Structures are given as structure tokens and as C-alpha cells.
Hints:
Layout: E1 9-13, E2 19-24, H1 28-34, E3 40-45, H2 50-62, E4 66-71, H3 81-94, E5 101-106, H4 108-120, E6 126-131, H5 134-140, E7 148-150, E8 153-157, E9 165-169, H6 178-194, H7 198-205, H8 207-211, H9 216-233, H10 250-259, H11 266-283, H12 289-301, H13 313-320, E10 332-336, E11 342-346, H14 350-361
Helix pairs in contact: 3-4, 4-5, 5-6, 5-9, 6-7, 6-9, 6-11, 10-11, 10-13, 11-12, 11-14
The structure holds nicotinamide-adenine-dinucleotide, the ligand O=C(O)C(=O)C[C@@H](O)[C@H](O)[C@H](O)COP(=O)(O)O and zinc ion (ZN).
Amino acid sequence: MTERADEPVQVRVESAHxxxxxxxxxxxxxxxxxxxxxxxxxxIYQPPLAETAEGLREALEESGYEAHRLEIPDAENGKDLxxxxxxxxxLGQIGLGRRDTVIGLGGGAATDLAGFVAATWMRGVNVVxxxxxxxxxxxxxxxxxxxxxxDAGKNLVGVFHEPTAVLVDTATLAxxxxxxxxxxxxxxxxxxxxxxxxxxxxxxxDPKAALDPExxxxxxxxxxxxxxxxxxxxxxxxxxDLREILNYGHTLxxxxxxxxxxxxxxxxxxxxxxxxxxxxxxxxxxxDDATADRHAAVLKLVGLPTGYDEGAFSRxxxxxxxxxxxxxxxxxxxxxxxxxKPSRLEGPDPTLMAAAYSAISEGHTTSGGxxxx
Length: 373
Ligand SMILES: NC(=O)c1ccc[n+]([C@@H]2O[C@H](COP(=O)([O-])OP(=O)(O)OC[C@H]3O[C@@H](n4cnc5c(N)ncnc54)[C@H](O)[C@@H]3O)[C@@H](O)[C@H]2O)c1
Ligand SMILES: O=C(O)C(=O)C[C@@H](O)[C@H](O)[C@H](O)COP(=O)(O)O
Ligand SMILES: [Zn+2]
């Protein structure tokens, strides 16, 4: 965590338990403040964040907290029941109590796991989220969806548990590998299509600036995406309806992630998923050609994939049957009927889905063990 530069920007999530997402550089004082009246703090973090976690632990100790570090396995390996079990054991050993705090430090996998551990420990303790990837900042750390992966599928076990604060320190992006910035851009672009088309204009005007982790454009894209998410989760935390729109591109995306045993980056899979639903929407007569084509165009500008293995459709269809949005066995897709006009397509004709899949995947062979991004 570095010295503070400009004044941080704040986005308020007006849910039943409102909280603030603070976006800035050098947010250590805010992280400490967010631990409030806790006595003990457990920092759950991924291996590349070890030094940052230790700096945070020492700063917390200097401020009078008893602070502990819990390192978890990297990426999707951390979103596992055995890892949650390890964390519960450690929380028991250190005596983390009801008024204490868990900090989730890292990418979306770390904030999902830390949120899940906090939600389940003593039936719910405070969690402060400190996302350190673009994807974590614009999406995973905001909104209170927590979870782990199981043999049954991705994120099928989890709890809605809102953070008490989210601290987005953009200085942490300096060490994030470029492919992870690209992956995060998929969720940013998602926000552009479902709610804030200005995001798409900004990326199209200058894709290089959009990908620069040190630049002002990045801060603007993070702020806009967080605002989109805050507006949605503030109205529908538990995804009774509106929140589904944040799942744009995820029905096929999650199926691809699962088929790839989670070796594909989440954003890469979601990018292909968005191209698929855009095509499906076009074929269903719901989306105009220009907006449908804009999907692949803008995703390619930042280096995201737009198609997947031609021969994988039947397996992906099988995997999509387990999607949480389905009703009574009927597939349900979030689609858009135009820019910022999210809607649903329920039980589409399988031949239409196959045609949409062929259209985006013609000529693609990458699959089964490939690492995209
Ligand atoms: N809860 C939600 O609402 C929500 C939303 C979107 C995505 N997600 C979940 O988030 C996960 C994906 O998140 P992600 O893309 O951040 O992946 P990730 O957490 O696996 O992080 C990607 C990689 O970046 C590394 N890393 C993190 N911060 C770093 C830093 N500052 N410097 C160097 N390396 C760093 C990580 O250790 C990891 O290797 C998926 O599991 C997805 O399901 C959840
Ligand atoms: O916050 C949400 O709601 C989302 O759907 C955001 C997604 O980007 C995210 O990947 C989320 O984890 C997906 O949730 P799931 O309920 O489909 O597992
Ligand atoms: Zn996502």
C-alpha cells in the first residue's frame, strides 16, 4: 500500500445494511478504520499478497488490534471447502469472536472465500473486502455474494453476506499480471452493455489507456462499474430478479470455466458467454446487428476471447442445466434488447442456441486444458 495521492472517490451501496466502496490510492488508514471496535482481525489473502498482508498486519497491530495472517491457495484452488475448513480451524485457534473482523485481501477468489468464511463463522462476522485485481475491484468484492466451488459446480455453495466496507486501492494493480487486467475488463464491459454504455465508448476511444493500471481512465472505469453494481445490489441483494442482470454472459461462461477445470480466467469465459448471448438475442430477433457485433469488437480490442471450441456445445449445454438462474429445468439467459436494456430469454429453442454457438465458435478449437489468458 502506497502513500495517498488524490482524494478517494466513494460509491455508496444503499442496501439494508449500507456500506461504502472507497476507490483511491494508499488506503491503509481506511482499512484500519473499517475494523472499528474489533479486538481481533484475520487477514485472508492469496500468496502473491504475502508482503502486503504482513504490512497490513503490522499496521493493525500498531493500531492496537491483534492481527493474524491466513494464507490460502491461489486462485480457484482457494474457493474450496477444505480451505474454508482450514480457515475455520484457524479462527477457532486465534479466538476470533462475534465482534471481530475478517479481511479479504486479493482477487475475486480470495474475497469470495473470505466472505464465505466470515458469513459462516459464528453465523456471521464482519468482513472488510480489499480487492487487489481489477475483477475483484469492479465486481467480486462488492455486493455480498460469497462462495466456493464444489463437484456440483461453480459457486453453488455460498451465502449472501455484505461487507462492512470495500477498500479499492488502485495502487495494488501495479503488480497484477496484464492477463488479469484483461480478464477484469470483461466484467467492466459487461457493465457497459447492461447499464452504462459510456463505458464502451471510453474503451473504444482508447483501449490502451483503458488497460493502463496507473491511468485515470482505469479509475473512471472502476468507478463506473462499481456504480452499476452498487445500483443493482442495493435494490436486490438476494437476486430475486434485478440482480440477475449482473450474470450477463455467465450462463455459458460458468459452463466453460467448469469444462476447463477452472484453468480459464473467469473474465475470458464470461467474454465468450457474452458473445454467445448477444448472438442468441440477435437470432431471436431481440437485438440489432450493430449492438450484437459490438460485443466481439470491443472484447477483442482489450484482448478477450470471443469464441470457444466448436465441438463443445453438447457438453456445455449439459453443464448449463445446473445454472442457478434456471426455473423448473428451463434454461434462462440474461440478454439485452439493446444497449442498457437487460432482459431475459427463457427456454430458447435448442436449435437457436446451437446456431448462436456455431456462429461464435466457427473455427475455434481451444479447449480442455488450454489456459486462456
Ligand atoms: N462474488 C461476486 O460477486 C463475484 C463477481 C465476479 C467474480 N467472482 C469470482 O471471482 C473470481 C475471479 O476473480 P479474479 O479474476 O480476481 O481471480 P483470482 O482471485 O484468482 O486472482 C487472479 C490472480 O491474481 C493474483 N493477484 C491478486 N492480486 C494481485 C496483485 N495485486 N498483484 C499480483 N497478483 C495478484 C491472484 O493471486 C491470482 O493468481 C472467480 O472465482 C469468480 O467466480 C465473484
Ligand atoms: O454479483 C452478481 O450477482 C454477479 O452475477 C456477478 C458475477 O460477475 C459473478 O461472477 C458472480 O460470482 C456470479 O454469481 P453466480 O451466482 O452466478 O455464481
Ligand atoms: Zn463474473
